[in-house]
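ok so i was messing around last nite and threw this chain in just to see what happens. nothing serious, just curious
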Amino acid sequence: MDRMKPKPDYVAAWETYRRVRRWLYVLLLAALVAFPALGICGALFARTTLAEHAQNVIGAIAVIVGLPWMLLVILIAFYLQLFVCPRCHRFFFMTWWYRNPFAQRCVNCRLPKWATEDIPEPWPVRPFS
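result:
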């Protein structure tokens, strides 16, 4: 059986999704390291003679770095939620009334996640989706 060639627009769309999702994971994992490290630095500086000044500096750094960091994570998560299906060009993870961020198929046309070519449906697409 001759397999179809992968569609370049499908491959490009999934590669973009992978790259953005990787950035989200990197930011979340880095936050697991960075923010406890700031807390440890604050605890260590609390024992010095400059304790009050050091706590203020550590707190300011946490706010200056933490707020944009959290905003970036939220924006990337929204971007991933609004990913457009390469086949039907509608949102992959949601319709106007339904949302599933863990969907393994497009909730509109049922294209499998990571598919690089059109795959025929074994059953008809649900009406009103």
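not much to say yet. Residues 8-81 form one domain.
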